[in-house]
Amino acid sequence: MRNTIGGLGEFALITRVTSQFPMTDDVILGPGDDAAVVAAPDGRTVATTDLLVEGRHFRREWSTAGDVGHRAVAQNFADVAAMGARPTALLIGFAAPADLPVSWAEEFTAGVRDECAVSGGTVVGGDMVGSDTLTIAVTALGDLQGRAPVRRDGARPGDVVAYTGHLGLSAAGLALLERGVDGPAECLSEHRRPSPPYARGAEAALLGATAMLDVSDGLAQDLGHVCRASGVRVDLESEALRPEPSLLEAVRVLGAGPGRAERVARDLMVAGGEDHALAAAFPPDTVLPDHWHRVGTVVEAAHGTAGKSGNPVTVDGHPPGGTGWDHFR
Amino acid sequence: MRNTIGGLGEFALITRVTSQFPMTDDVILGPGDDAAVVAAPDGRTVATTDLLVEGRHFRREWSTAGDVGHRAVAQNFADVAAMGARPTALLIGFAAPADLPVSWAEEFTAGVRDECAVSGGTVVGGDMVGSDTLTIAVTALGDLQGRAPVRRDGARPGDVVAYTGHLGLSAAGLALLERGVDGPAECLSEHRRPSPPYARGAEAALLGATAMLDVSDGLAQDLGHVCRASGVRVDLESEALRPEPSLLEAVRVLGAGPGRAERVARDLMVAGGEDHALAAAFPPDTVLPDHWHRVGTVVEAAHGTAGKSGNPVTVDGHPPGGTGWDHFR
Fold this sequence. Notes:
Two copies of one chain form a homodimer. Chain A is of the alpha+beta class. Helix content of chain A is 33%, strand content 24%. In chain A, the strands form three sheets. The first copy, chain A, has a six-stranded mixed sheet with strand order 8-10-7-11-9-12.
């Protein structure tokens, strides 16, 4: 039973795992003590946490352990980037059944390590416990490098709405997997291993972004948070929502007829979650680099509707075709 | 179904929960954005994480939701205190079945809030997801206030070993619950709601502690970590291990005969976990306040044994009577 984590034992596994992570300049004290000590050079720390539960957020049949490790890092450091901060450190809680193969834990760790290398952060601590449900808890820390955090409540009427990264690919990849259909590798890979544009969070802050967030539940649903926090509406322009070729190919493979593929792809861009693009509002005169795609405008909230029910995000003035999802329903 | 968290929905529950927490001076940006921003006045952040899994770390039959909330805070801020730091902020991940009563989540939150008030920290962020297994992930942050962190690797031969807080009461409380026996309220309450001496972590740092940790798995097992990290041994003195009256009463209720009660109580002090006392090594000439109980001495590691298997902690020169436990075995 040495090939299960129950057989190997908690301490042996922790030792194997923690030896994988480089001590970056942000790490004052790494794993192995009661707590880690992380540098916070400007006197502030950005902090966010997420849980990934098997069967809800990933499936071992569809994602390798490495994919899950990548994703655990990506979705948390995307939140750090969405504040305009630089990813620094992670703490990872790992709850697993005793019969989980050691190889799964090791491949998960390799995925975490590889995505950390992309993001610039590293693992400084964690916890490992038994559970009937494989559950991964990630807390990510970040450094604002002296800048003000880019919150959700600063968008103003007239601001340009833009995103960077991918939109819709992860949802298309999930649909392909659910239907057991082969399709474009970009969509499958974006579902398994989203690639948030980490460094563009700080870039957006430097460009003067008035509001920003990580697109995890779908562009329309997530921009709704910006609208409610800022007391505005957002109107997206369908002409500006330009699907990537792989997304168009995926919706065709999934059965959208020739006349409908573009529209279905746009719906996935608006409603599909988990790509971890960054979406932001910028003052109207901002000169945006090409990798920021302008997709809409911030408009004044209709009198008396701000903060009420109903999605304050429209497409060409109409409610979007699809919505995101509530984890409990 | 509005009385279950599935019926109420994720966003409504998050709103109810986050409104409970005061924004202390440490909170630059609280819940509701992609990430929180926490003050780190001396340019460093202490960070630690723990998972609590139903059936492994708590049982809904034995602990109220409030107890679990208290414990989730206590065990994490105890780790922060064990670095010599002041507790500042928590992030809480909450994974629960859809049929969990809303009242459980609310009482859990009240427990978290009350223990936060004791510790001085507050909740700045979190995540809420569905899961078949009720699981709570807590990350705690702290402020070293300009002091060096008290690590595990600084104990030197000749140092005095002392603890503050309680030892053995939680284990006795657990034994009472497991056997369905009524017993001293102090032990039951310490199991349900451990009361770590948070402020004494910073005190120990100011007193010059050379090593310190939170006693979570048992004094002997945890001091073993200090020994291995510091390359020393620790000899505890049974005469110095003075059980609290409630602990003695509990072991009598549990069946220890008149001649054995003291010895069983000492074994529980040495092997019992989850009281979250602080144990530390101090230079021999340190004048300790009365609430630090001297229980042993740091001695030189026998040649070639440091870091090897076998517990480097002895009682009167002999191996201790019991041991802690490995979560997976």
